[in-house]
Every structure is written in structure tokens, then in C-alpha cells.
Write a structure and sequence with these properties.
Blueprint (H helix, E strand, L loop, with lengths): L4 E4 L2 E4 L8 H10 L8 E9 L5 E8 L4 E6 L5 H15 L4 H12 L3 H9 L11 E7 L4 H12 L5 E11 L2 E8 L3 H11 L8 E4 L8 H7 L1 E5 L2 H4 L10 E6 L3 E14 L4 E2 L2 E2 L21 E11 L18 E3 L3 H11 L5
InterPro entries: tRNA_endonuc-like_dom_sf
Organism: Chelatococcus reniformis
Protein name: DUF91 domain-containing protein
């Protein structure tokens, strides 16, 4: 159970829990700002009627074109909402790319291509809905239903999780906290591994080219980076010296292959052949943001590049493996085959 405390007269005092007037409020908040749940999606439908007569609360799409079902518990029993979410997933998995474009147009009032570009700064993949996930939203879930969700995810690799909202009341204000039943990144990794071949040692790493780092800097100075919080920088610790990595840029494709040459350090401590990285000419000087704050600073892992390409000319093909994790194992056979031919990738 999530608890919230305030500091009063030098002591921690628990903030009392409250109740929402309606779960419709949560649905509206998530529809407008899915990041409340930590979901990096564009909502493309609300209260969608399925061919089986069901009604999906929210349907979203991520930057790789995969769909997310967001289902609120409301007044249903926990077991009912889990069963219903699985029923909805059986319908969602059959949606074709043209059908998704049509439904998104109806809900958004503009083309999916336009909305997708505004949300993710890239064009939608040619083929949508290659996988899907389920998020159940509830204030609580009984132990039996929690076991069912864990079983589906941990044993069968189904991308299902539960997000908990807890409401608190303090001095006339309503406060809201969110938490997950399972680690969302681990849920995604298990789901992907379900249909993949055994891991051969190659790591997938997201480049994260954008407002705080530049792929051109990474190519030039030999590193990959992540930051903004432990959620993003922490996964870099999975990389060890000698590990092969294939680097992917969201919305573009694969842009580099190399081998880790030194473990992760704060970017302020990263040294290039010419001296400290932050003293070098940088295409993205914001790499130095919060340089002295270990919680949110950028972290870097040194890489000896075998081959890199610019973001404007990536290795991209239909059906390639891609997801939003900072670091994960790359096992998908077709992706390994293409990267071997195009970037000289050799699994560890």
C-alpha cells in the first residue's frame, strides 16, 4: 500500500487517504496525460466498442506502433476486469494498420500521421500493431487477481500489468500517487523474449538523440548515454566491458554497432582522447545538464565503434526489433541477420 507523509515540526505525519468522486476523472486524466502512468503513448481511442460488444476504456499507440489497452476497474470485481481486459486484447490483436488509422482519425479529428509526428517527432512505422500490452488501472486489486496478473506476465510472457492510483486529502487539496504491481520494464522484456530466440550476448541500446544528447557526439567521442533519473540511467549498469551493443534511435532505426570499452560513469567524469568530454565541442551542449547532481545527471558508457551511420541514414526494415527500453537483450533472428549484413554485428 502506498503511503504519503508530510514533515510537520520535524516529524513525519501520515497524510490521510481520500476518495475520488468518480473513476471517470482518472480516465480523463490518463487520456490527456498518459505519462501519469509512466506510459509513453498517444491515446487514439476512448470507450471503443469491440466486435464482441465490449467497451475499451482507452487505446493508445507507442512510438514503435504497438498498441496499449488501458482498462479501469470501475465497479467490476478484480477478476472480471482481468478477464475483460484479456478479452479486449483478443480483439485488439486483430486490428489491421488501416483500421488503426481509421479509428485514430475518428478520435483525434486529424490524421494519425500528423498526431504521431507531433507526439513522437517521427513518422509511424509502416506496419502497426505487431504487439500489444494491457494496463489495468485500479485503486486496489485483491491478492488472487494480483497472482493472476503475475502468472500471466512472469510465466507466460504476456504484457500485462496493473497501475495503482492512491488518493490523499491534505488541507483541502487532493493529492494523487501512482505505482505499479510489476516492474514495467521487466514486463516488456519478458513479453519480447516470449517470441525470441535464445540470447547470444548482443545488447540493444537506445541512443536517445534529442534535447539532452546527440548521436553525432556519441559517434565522435565514443559513448552512449542516458540520464534524467535512475529509471533511465540505471539500465546502463547492465553493460560490461567487452559487451557488444547495437544502438537504435527511436523513430529512425539502427545507427551503430560497437563494443563497451569502459563501465558507466557520470558524464562529467567521462574522458575522451582529447580530454574531459564536457570540455569538447558538442553538437548538444545540454549533455551537461545537472552535471553535478547524481540523481538526474547524464551518465555515459565508453564504446569502441565498429560501424556507425547518421540518424538520417539508419538501418531500418519492416518487422525490425525495437522497443522503448534504454538497454535490453536483442534476440530477434531477422534483426540480427540484417544488422550482421549492414553493420557487421557479431553477437557476443
Amino acid at each position: 500500500m502506498t503511503r504519503l507523509y508530510k514533515l510537520a515540526n520535524g516529524a513525519l505525519v501520515p497524510v490521510p487517504q481520500g476518495q475520488l468522486v468518480s473513476e471517470d476523472m482518472i480516465e480523463g486524466w490518463v487520456a490527456e496525460q498518459p505519462s501519469l502512468l509512466g506510459l509513453d503513448i498517444l491515446v487514439i481511442g476512448r470507450q471503443i466498442i469491440t466486435d464482441f460488444g465490449g467497451r475499451i476504456d482507452l487505446l493508445g499507440i507507442d512510438s514503435e506502433g504497438n498498441l496499449s489497452i488501458v482498462e479501469l476497474k470501475r465497479d467490476r470485481t478484480p477478476r472480471e476486469v482481468v478477464a475483460q481486459a484479456l478479452d479486449y486484447a483478443s480483439w485488439v490483436q486483430s486490428l489491421t494498420t488501416p483500421q488503426i488509422y481509421e479509428r485514430a482519425q475518428t478520435y483525434l479529428g486529424r490524421s494519425l500521421t500528423t498526431a504521431f509526428a507531433e507526439r513522437f517527432s517521427s513518422s509511424p512505422p509502416e506496419r502497426l500493431n505487431q504487439s500489444h500490452s494491457i494496463v489495468i488501472v485500479a485503486s486496489a486489486l485483491d491478492p488472487s487477481s494480483q497472482r493472476i496478473v503475475r502468472y500471466l506476465s512472469e510465466t507466460h510472457g504476456i504484457a500485462i500489468n496493473t497501475a495503482f492510483f492512491t488518493v490523499f486529502q491534505e488541507a483541502g487539496q487532493t493529492l494523487l500517487t501512482t505505482d505499479w504491481l510489476l516492474d514495467q520494464q521487466e514486463v516488456a522484456v519478458r513479453s519480447e523474449a516470449k517470441v525470441q530466440s535464445p540470447w547470444q550476448g548482443l545488447w540493444y541500446v537506445n541512443a536517445g538523440d534529442g534535447d539532452t544528447r546527440s548521436w553525432e557526439d556519441m559517434r565522435r567521442y565514443g559513448f552512449v548515454a542516458a540520464g534524467g533519473g535512475e529509471k533511465w540511467s540505471g539500465p546502463l549498469r547492465r553493460l560490461s566491458v567487452g559487451d557488444p551493443i547495437a544502438v537504435y534511435q527511436k523513430g529512425a532505426g539502427y545507427v551503430g554497432y560497437g563494443k563497451v570499452s569502459a563501465p558507466v560513469v557520470m558524464v562529467r567524469d567521462f574522458v575522451t582522447e582529447a580530454g574531459p568530454l564536457l570540455d569538447q565541442p558538442l553538437a548538444q551542449p545540454n549533455l551537461a545538464h545537472d552535471r553535478n547532481d547524481p540523481d538526474v545527471a547524464e551518465y555515459a558508457v565508453a564504446v569502441d565503434w565498429v560501424r556507425t551511420v547518421p540518424v538520417s541514414d539508419p538501418v531500418r526494415f519492416e518487422g525490425m526489433f525495437a522497443n522503448q527500453n534504454i538497454v535490453c537483450k536483442l534476440c530477434e533472428p531477422r534483426t540480427l541477420e540484417v544488422l550482421r549484413d549492414r553493420l557487421g554485428v557479431e553477437p557476443g
